[in-house]
Write a structure and sequence with these properties.
single chain; alpha/beta; Chitobiase, domain 2; TIM Barrel; Immunoglobulin-like; 4 domains; 8-stranded parallel barrel; binds ligand TNX
Length: about 775
């Protein structure tokens, strides 16, 4: 009896705690709405629930269908859109002002989404889809807590750029991106449709743009040409995409990049190039010299292309690039120089400005607006042109203060080709690491814009440049989950920013993305390992102390030492683990609901492992040099192997190596294609003295650059003939006794032409006592 009473009491306490929890638990919403008021009670949404829309309201019906589609995929519940009234209903309300604004009210009797605009109804639907899919009870009814949401975006341009020019992606991939942009209220998809490496937009009047310009033949790893790669979108395909995106509130901004990044165009139509030669479609990343000719017939050629582009893309903005156009070809062309004199232009920058003006005026006459990368500011800009600022924020500040509309898209923070962690399992990209937190911290309204000019800041955009993103998997990996941070900084009020709260709200969104088939990086939540003190000390003491942490600092870390996969019941990590070298630590972070936030990662503590370092653990020499994390070849589709490399000085260092304990080593080396257009930066590439024809790998104790010029050479290995050697090989050598612990510098002295080399891994062998 007494036992029963206490059981009853315990149950009552549990229930009331759970109810209180439901009212205060963070709502699973990303981006955070402008205002949320919680109420009492809830409304339960079950399988088969009706969703009503006003008779004859096509926009509301579309929003209801989208709601049903998301809830089906993300929560396993089938909702039934109907005309007329229902407990869940969409209504038009002229009092909710703003095309993207909506109100969402939930009480015990039902759910009401109200908006004046189609996009408002749509965003209300996306918010409700998130409220319905917070937990893992797939297919089960869900109680949506009572609340009142009044929501509208902070910025009008919430953009994402996809770069199918560098690596072509199938059209279906873009459909998936549009779906997931809409889910987090991103509304602008910028398609970088042309570049040196490929032309992806079908132009009926100039078919060679895609017959020739859509395909390139990258060198294979042996140096011989590999199979051609590429592809393009037909106008019919793009029209379909535009309509699909419009129905999800997403406008597509097409980009034709000019006058630089135009090598594919010149490959197809050399008569619109500058010097008359016909290049191949480029397989060199970076900055290539081929420019569009500013002559009258080439201006008309582009206008013809723009006519076809505008017929496919009905949106206001047309992006015409303007970035990284080195002017060597214009400088060398008597014809371009004569044109400049004729126009009274003194510099090639002014020539670029003039050219952009021609197109700006052409677009304006058709009711469109030109937008370009911030370089278009340099020689003066037509008033109607808008600027996408990528070289930091200065372009945006200058442009907005001059009265131009601007979009903030600064490298490296909003460059999604920047790696999101320093993990060794991160796929290739730029080594300037921009974490989820970095994106979340970004403030799209730069200081320095006069208050009366703030309205010129249209919003923010992230760019997933795709030199190193070959597969849809890889593109998705850089976009998700950082797109959620982008969505929140561009939609939510600035005052609502709260990274910890965001991390909680992000988990359900990650689950939704995964259920929708997206690859979502777990880099921010995966456990990373740091040896405390030096590896040498650990080896000497036969005791290693390892700290475990996740980048985002979310969840409880749990680990095993017996090789089993950690579960929510595994040991909770509280303080650095002090171990006798040998075991492998396997750890993962778990959320409050006991779900793992990331796949478990391993850390081997064997003595051999403590003496091994791989590419992601090396430091650049000189430290801080521009770094890339590159695949073995430009078309490699696997995430690994990936090599951290500084293409300006192929030197890398094994930091704080336990040399005093080592008697030998193995270095694993990869030969990589040097396929970079460096333009004027070519002078920054460091050539080191080579003795043998293909150069050597020189190992020194300490780095000549940082530790003084004369460093003891530990070993020298001539590099094999690239024409016949495999592209991965290894060198082994011995080390003398008596060396002090310290950096091992690994310098390649190969000629600075193609190829170059990177170290994949270095393993030291332990000296027997
Ligand atoms: C610079 S940003 C570029 C692109 C590259 C990108 C790589 C810009 C307008 N031009 O061509 O893909 O860096 O991060």
């Amino acid at each position: 009896m007494i036992r029963n009473a206490s059981l009853l009491l315990a149950t009552t306490l549990l229930v009331s705690a759970a109810t209180a929890g439901a009212q205060t638990a963070p709502l699973p919403l990303v981006p955070m709405p402008q205002s949320v008021t919680r109420g009492a009670g809830s409304f339960t949404v079950s399988d088969g629930a009706h969703v009503g829309t006003p008779a004859g309201d096509a926009g509301a019906a579309a929003a209801a269908r989208l709601l049903a589609a998301h809830v089906k995929t993300e929560r396993g519940l089938t909702l039934a859109p109907v005309q007329g009234d229902a407990p869940i209903r969409f209504v038009r309300d002229a009092g909710v002002t703003g095309e993207e604004a909506y109100r969402l009210d939930v009480d015990g009797r039902g759910i009401r989404i109200a908006a004046s605009g189609d996009r408002g109804l749509l965003y209300g639907a996306m918010t409700l889809a998130q409220l319905i899919s917070p937990d893992r009870a797939f297919g089960k009814p869900t109680a949506v807590p009572a609340l009142a949401i009044a929501d509208a975006p902070r910025f009008a341009w919430r953009g994402l750029m996809i770069d199918p020019a560098r690596h072509f992606q199938p059209i279906e991939f873009l459909y998936g991106i549009v779906d997931q942009m809409a889910a987090v209220k991103l509304n602008t998809l910028h398609l970088h449709l042309t570049d040196d490496q490929g032309w992806r937009f079908e132009v009926k009047r100039y078919p060679k743009l895609t017959e020739i310009g859509a395909w390139r033949t990258p060198p294979s790893s042996g140096g011989a040409p590999g199979p051609r790669v590429g592809g393009f979108y037909t106008q019919a395909q793009l029209r379909g995409l535009v309509a699909y995106a419009a129905a999800r509130g997403v406008a597509i901004v097409p980009e034709i990049d000019l006058p630089g990044h135009a090598q594919a165009l010149v490959a197809a139509y050399p008569e619109h190039g500058v010097l008359g030669d016909r290049p191949a479609v480029s397989h060199d990343w970076g900055v290539n010299p081929y420019l569009l000719n500013p002559q009258a017939k080439s201006v008309r050629f582009i206008e013809d292309i723009l006519d076809e582009l505008m017929a496919v893309f009905p949106g206001t903005y047309i992006h015409l690039g303007g970035d990284e156009a080195v002017k060597d070809q214009w400088e060398r062309s008597p014809q371009v120089q004569a044109q400049m004199r004729g126009l009274g232009l003194k510099t090639e920058m002014q020539m670029q400005s003039w050219l952009i003006d021609q197109f700006g005026a052409y677009l304006a006459a058709k009711g469109r607006r030109l937008i370009g990368w911030d370089e278009i500011l340099e020689g003066g800009l037509p008033a109607s042109a808008s600027v996408m600022s990528w070289r930091g924020e200065k372009g945006a500040v200058d442009a907005a203060n001059q009265g131009h509309d601007v979009v903030l898209s600064p490298a490296p923070t909003l460059y999604f080709d920047s790696l999101q962690s320093d993990r060794g399992d991160e796929p290739p990209g730029r080594l300037s690491i921009q974490t989820l937190a970095d994106v979340y911290k970004y403030e799209p309204m730069p200081a320095g814009i006069a208050p009366d000019k703030a309205r010129h800041v249209l919003g923010a955009q992230a760019n997933s440049w795709s030199e190193y993103l070959v597969t849809p998997y890889q593109v998705q990996h850089v976009i998700f989950p950082r797109a959620a941070a982008l969505a929140e900084i561009s939609w939510s009020p600035k005052a609502a920013r709260d990274f910890t709260g965001f991390l909680d709200r992000l988990q359900p969104q990650i689950a939704r993305w995964r259920r929708s088939g997206m690859e979502v990086a777990d880099s921010a939540f995966a456990v990373g390992y740091t040896i405390q003190g030096s590896a040498a000390d650990a080896l000497r003491a036969n005791r290693v102390t390892v700290a475990l942490a996740t980048q985002a600092g979310a969840g409880t870390i749990r680990y095993t030492l017996d090789g089993s996969v950690p579960t929510a019941r595994a040991h909770a990590y509280a303080a650095p683990l002090s171990l006798t070298p040998g075991a492998t630590i396997r750890a993962a972070a778990f959320g409050p609901d006991g779900a793992a936030l990331a796949t478990a990662r391993d850390f081997a503590t064997s003595r051999a492992a403590l003496m091994t370092r791989d590419a992601s653990q090396f430091t650049a020499c000189p430290r801080g040099a521009l770094g890339l994390r590159v695949p073995l070849s430009s078309e490699a589709t696997a995430n690994a192997p990936a090599f951290n490399a500084n293409i300006f000085d192929t030197c890398t260092a094994y930091p704080a190596a336990p040399l005093s304990l080592s008697d030998g080593f193995t270095v694993e080396v990869a030969r990589l294609p040097r396929h970079y257009g460096l333009a004027h930066d070519i002078t920054k590439v460091r050539q080191h003295y080579n003795v043998t024809p293909y150069g050597e790998l020189v190992l020194t104790a300490g780095c000549p650059v940082t530790d003084g010029p004369k460093r003891p050479v530990l070993a020298t290995f001539p590099l094999p003939d690239p024409a016949s050697a495999p592209n991965r090989f290894r060198f082994t050598g011995t080390l003398p006794a008596g060396l002090a612990d310290g950096d091992i510098c690994m310098q390649f002295t190969s000629p600075t032409s193609d190829p170059f080399y990177a170290v994949e891994r270095m393993q030291l062998t332990e000296r027997r006592k």
